[in-house]
Amino acid sequence: MPDARVQSAIAHWAPRFVSNGVPLTDFEEVTAGVERWEDWCRAWCARAAVHEELGRRSLADGYRLSAGEHLTRAAVCYHFSKFVFVIDYEQMKAAHRKAVECRNLALPLLDPPGERVAIPYEGKQLYGNLRKPRGVAKPPVLVMCMGLDSTKEEMDVNEGVFLARGIATLTFDGPGQGEGEYDFAIRGDYEVAINAVLDYVGSRGDLDATRTGLWGVSLGGYYAPRAAAFEKRVKACIVLSGPFEWVEYFDKLPELTRNTFQVRSRSRTPGEARSRAATLTLKSVAKNITCPLFIVAGKQDGIVPWEEGERLAAAASGPVVRCFLEDGNHVANNRVYRYRSQSADWMARQLSVTPV
Amino acid sequence: MDTTAGKSKDKRVEAAISHWAPRFVANGVPLTDFQEVTAGCDRWEDWCAAWSARAAIHEALGEQALKDGFKLSAGEHYTRAALCYHFGKFLFVNDLEQMKQAHRKAVECRNKALPLLDPPGERVAIPYEGKHLYGILRKPRGAAKPPVVVMCMGLDSTKEEMDDYEKRFLKRGLATLAFDGPGQGEAEYDFAICPEYEKPAKAVIDFVETRTDLDSGRVGIWGVSFGGYYAPRAAAFDKRIKACVALSGPYQRSASFEGRPVMNVEAFRVRSKSASLEEAGKVALRVSLKGIAKNITCPIYIVAGTKDRLTPADAAKELAAEVSGPCVLSIVEGGNHVVNNLWYCYRDQTADWMAAQLGAPKR
Fold this sequence. Notes:
Distance between the termini of chain A: 49 Å
Number of helices of chain A: 12
Order of helices and strands of chain A: HHHHHEEEHEHEHEHHEHEH
Structural class of chain B: alpha/beta
Structural class of chain A: alpha/beta
Oligomer: heterodimer
């Protein structure tokens, strides 16, 4: 009988893993082979290594497209090995390094290719992956905000949806996220990070900075509207299952999620983590959101109550699309066909892209 | 994934769940659809209706997207709808009326999707024995006269299931022509299973030669499951075929159906238009590459899984041993039938190989 944390992982995450690119059999076999949470990271790394090897072989044979796909799969598996594995920092870091390395190897091989970018931030840098749709001179761009445990290496499928519709994607690891978690703690005033990213977008001659959208998943579904409340350069915003007032149900979160928040917010105690959580709030600022919002929430969400989406919808000042799914779980990963293409089509319209 | 806990299910439904999750999902059925639809289906008799109901959801999403002017999304929703309708009826020979109705919907949805896809597809009619076989032709963007891969279905697969496979070839600069041959998909009503598959394959390649937008000097053939027999069988006879990919196909069938899942046996009986199992056994005996495979001189890439419960990997070894041309034999450790559980061990690899055989630049 697997331990409770492994059981919770299996119960919560199959749809997310698979809809973001983990082969179903990988999910079944790897999770079936893990009895103790302590073995989670190692087991996924072993599976990731299989994909990495396939990728490196394809690359050696000159098959770039295949290599890019294998290496992306490797990165996703390495990523999920460590995404909430804060119990062993050294193991987490090693797996993280591999995830970044594999996705970086994949970037130039993808169609369309990606480019690793460094975004100046507080005397250091945040890292992002920039991809541009083929055949568009100066495309609009979507800035993609990660959550508590997602990172830019998990985003291939989501990027593809926007790229296919003529929108560039800039996925980045912000404070407390992915590569940004070692130098920077989680911060509630995420508009500061977004300000740096939008300055960076403005510095690029190959992107249309006047047509910038924002997208955020899970905790990123808080970060994105938070930034939109402050940053008028944001023309439209997609919110996926984000909190409105994180602290209100912080104590009810799954243990792994709370532990991860404590570590990534650099809190020494659960009590301190709780105080940090209180800084993640839209309560007094949501009214300043004037750009159009597309809000997705699953009414079966066991992590972030769907009503948080309604609170945001009610408080925002601009136009709102409410995409509240009766049968959706957290991020509606079990119902991706009810919002992924729909929100991308909506964003394309907001950013004045000809419909495809 | 335990979807059966606490319920007693009909053995055919249990077999379906245990055999097919990886295939359904790898070919485009959302995981949650598979889990929910199969969990809600206790008797095999309800299978087709349950999948058709789920398909209708995707169909409605497609209609909505099309109405809103979002063609790309509409094409994807319709393709998903077609796939769910397809799997509703793929082995549902126990109720031919229900099967036909779901089949009509599968074809209708995929046809609606075709012009919306990237790259788009075109429905083509291929003259065959005074009637027609139907196919889906897709061409890679930006290629003037691309090479083409003719795709052969199996006992229960049809051209509506092929989007994922097609895309892998298309991305590598190859056109795809997936078609329903005798006993398959739209052709199963007019034509019985034809073990001498070189006949329909000849008609298809004749058709390819009439198309000025395809390079008929560079034709490959590909076959999945039972089609993994049809494709090499055709390659043994038709020298216009320049390369062949065979996935988990039989080498020599016996007249006995013992040990095979009951639904597959029935599908074979019905689609071979046999009145009895004995009669079906005679058709099965004609399924043979023995003494024929030696005439395969084009390069061949053979895939098999060591855990295949339908076609043992030995069939692949026998085929590999007999062919006369260059051969890649990929027996995937732990692979199930068509290695759908470990699709990343062959789908891209075979597409890269085929592109190389047909002279498409490496990508």
